[in-house]
Specification:
The chain contains 5 helices and 12 strands. The chain is of the alpha+beta class. It has one domain: GHMP Kinase, N-terminal domain (Ribosomal Protein S5, domain 2).
Length: about 270
């Protein structure tokens, strides 16, 4: 066993000892997320953008909107794609190079939560059926990491989309042509919110910070829409959740998610 793993085990023991007293390392309740700060329009030249800070994790998301070819089997719908990138300066463990499995999973979880909630009405983003549609691309860049990037990136992407304006294109000579001075908000049907919970020992913690994240036995990310319906779920870690624990996590995702959703709504209104 290396010295690092010894330190990790000592850290986990301390966290569990606090949990047995009903406490967390940063003083939060078990069902309490960290302080959320949302800055809309953080990138002036993007079609939409947001800077989000969840505790000490920070993400900047920029939205690019442009004409694109539709997917072969979805000629009557626009395109949405979400990506994620960790800057080397975000954490000592992050290195330059192609994205690893963790970053790929991060992008997919955020993308799925937004896509499966049907947040964006893609049917309204068609320029010419089967020929040209509007593509919305949300790019998350992690600038500071202290646990739970799933929710930090999801909130940044959602806030950036809510702030976005879609240019208008018309087909001329079979080519999508920009209509100058004509913009409209992205067609929104719901506001998805993900809530990630970690399991340490027998305890379920909402929004684990960096130390808690390193000590987790398992994690689960649940995304709900504005009606409280679960639309996406991702489980990770080598440990498991009992049926009752999954039910509890579902209830927590609705409870905590409703508070986060109000903050996203307020931020979007303030950025208009």
């Amino acid at each position: 066993m290396t010295s690092i793993s010894v330190i990790d085990e000592l850290k986990k023991s301390q966290i569990i000892e606090l949990l047995e007293q009903g406490k967390r390392v940063d003083g939060r309740a078990l069902d309490e997320s960290r302080k959320l700060i949302i800055e809309i329009n953080a990138i002036p030249k993007a079609n939409g953008s947001a800077r989000v800070r969840l505790g000490d994790s920070e993400v900047v998301c920029g939205v690019k909107i442009q004409p694109d070819r539709p997917f072969p089997d979805m000629g009557d719908k626009g395109i949405f794609i979400c990506t994620a990138e960790l800057l080397p300066l975000s954490h000592p463990s992050v290195e330059t190079g192609p994205p690893g499995p963790d970053v790929i999973e991060l992008a997919r979880v955020v993308d799925r939560g937004i896509r499966e909630s049907h947040m964006i009405d893609l049917s309204q983003l068609v320029i010419a059926k089967n020929k040209s549609v509007v593509g919305i691309f949300a790019d998350n860049v992690v600038v500071d990491y202290d646990g739970n990037l799933f929710d930090t990136c999801a909130y940044a992407a959602t806030a950036a989309i809510l702030s976005s304006k879609t240019p208008k294109w018309e087909m001329k000579d079979d080519v999508p042509t920009l209509v100058e001075g004509s913009e409209s908000p992205v067609p929104i049907t719901t506001i998805p919110v993900s809530v990630t919970m970690g399991k340490i020992g027998n305890y379920i913690l909402v929004d684990p910070n960096g130390d808690e994240w390193d000590s987790m036995d398992a994690r689960i990310t649940i995304t709900t829409d504005s009606n409280g319906n679960i639309c996406a779920l991702q489980k990770g870690g080598i440990g498991g959740f009992s049926f009752d624990e999954v039910i509890k996590c579902g209830e927590l995702s609705v409870k905590v998610g409703s508070k986060i959703r109000e903050k996203l709504k307020q931020a979007a209104k303030g950025g208009q």
